[in-house]
Structures are given as structure tokens and as C-alpha cells.
């Protein structure tokens, strides 16, 4: 939606609030808790069913990790190129291939697994969501519940992440493309 200078401030803030929350993959509940406001208040603010008060701005800005100016600003047309830095943790390097946009909370990554990522944890993680992996090069070991699978180049797997799972390298590095939900992204990079 294109914005104009005639857009009322309250409408712009409501739109920016939804945009920023969605970009960050946050739920209404998460933002409401961070801002110390009731979830129904936040929902009504976003929907325009409650007037935005000036005292909401600092708490909402902090909850979204932006300045008040960024929350009040008109959004600029976004450069379509994805230029985010790779993220590395536990032998796994992830290059974001999507912006944090409204893709139903799904994000695409190119992943490289080092040869050293070959030992699964004692307890396989479980979390909300769904993962999709496509192997480009190397052999991927996927532990999925009781199954121990080897995924070769050109093969794809998809699975619910409510099933205990882990993936690593078999006899050398692995290159793959992954589509993850926000919970999977957090697990692989921040836990």
C-alpha cells in the first residue's frame, strides 16, 4: 500500500505497528507483554478501534526494538534485495534469503553445515512449526523421531517440528536451502 503525506498520524502508526510486528515475527501477545499493555488494547489499537495515546508510543517502540521516530515515520519503499549478514552458531551458518515480511511467518535461508556438525544433542529439540529442507551439496543426516535418515543432493524433506528432530553433516560439509517458521529460526540461531 502506497503512503502519502496526507495519511493521518494515527493511521500511519497503526499500519507501522502491524508492519513492524509482522516483520519481526512477533505475535500480539509478545508485543503486548513487552509493552506492558493488555493484548486486547493492542489488538484494538492495531484495528483502529481504540485511539492511540501518546503514552503508548514509547512502550510500543521499545517492545518492537525501534525508536519512536521509526514507529511514527512513513515506511519507505523497500529495496527488494535481501542484504542481511549471515548468522553462525554450532557449525551452522545461515544466510537469510527473505526479508522479515508477511510470508505467514516463514523465512528462507541458505545454510552451510560444517563437517564438525555431526553429533546430535542428547535430547532432540521439539517446537511449534514446520521445516522444509532441500540439500544442494553433501549428505545431510536427519534425526526425526526414531528415524535416522541420510538426505542426498536433490532431495527435499518436510516435517512437523513437533517431532523431535536434529540435522547435521555426514562425511563433510553440507549446503542446503531451508524454509523455517519463526520458532525454528529462533531454535537454530538463539537457543
Number of strands: 7
Please state the overall shape, judged from the principal axes of the Cα atoms.
Answer: elongated
User: What do we call the CATH topology of the largest domain?
Assistant: Jelly Rolls
- Order of helical and strand elements: HHHHHEEEEEEEH
Helical segment count:
6
Output the CATH class name of the largest domain. Mainly Beta
State the distance separating the first and last CA atoms. Answer: 36 Å
Largest sheet geometry:
7 strands, antiparallel
Could you estimate the helical fraction of the residues in percent? 25-40%
CATH superfamily of the largest domain: Jelly Rolls
Which stretches are low in confidence, meaning pLDDT under 50 for 5 or more residues running? none
Summarize the structure.
Residues 17-71 form the HTH cro/C1-type domain. The chain is an alpha+beta fold. The chain is built from 6 helices and 7 strands.
Amino acid at each position: 500500500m502506497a503512503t502519502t503525506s496526507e495519511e493521518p498520524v494515527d493511521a500511519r502508526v497503526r499500519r507501522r505497528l502491524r508492519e513492524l510486528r509482522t516483520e519481526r515475527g512477533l505475535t500480539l501477545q509478545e508485543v503486548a507483554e513487552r509493552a506492558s499493555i493488555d493484548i486486547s488494547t493492542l489488538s484494538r489499537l492495531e484495528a483502529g478501534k481504540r485511539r492511540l495515546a501518546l503514552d503508548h508510543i514509547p512502550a510500543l517502540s521499545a517492545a518492537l526494538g525501534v525508536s519512536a521516530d521509526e514507529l511514527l515515520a512513513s515506511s519507505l519503499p523497500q529495496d527488494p534485495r535481501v542484504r542481511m549478514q549471515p548468522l553462525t552458531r554450532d557449525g551452522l551458518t545461515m544466510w537469510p534469503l527473505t526479508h522479515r515480511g508477511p510470508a505467514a511467518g516463514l523465512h528462507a535461508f541458505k545454510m552451510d553445515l560444517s563437517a564438525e556438525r555431526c553429533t546430535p544433542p542428547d535430547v532432540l529439540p521439539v517446537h511449534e512449526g514446520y521445516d522444509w529442507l532441500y540439500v544442494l551439496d553433501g549428505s545431510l543426516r536427519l534425526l526425526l523421531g526414531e528415524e535416522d535418515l541420510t538426505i542426498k543432493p536433490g532431495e527435499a524433506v518436510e516435517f512437523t517440528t513437533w517431532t523431535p528432530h536434529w540435522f547435521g553433516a555426514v562425511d563433510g560439509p553440507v549446503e542446503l536451502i531451508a524454509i523455517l517458521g519463526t520458532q525454528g529460526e529462533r531454535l537454530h540461531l538463539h537457543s
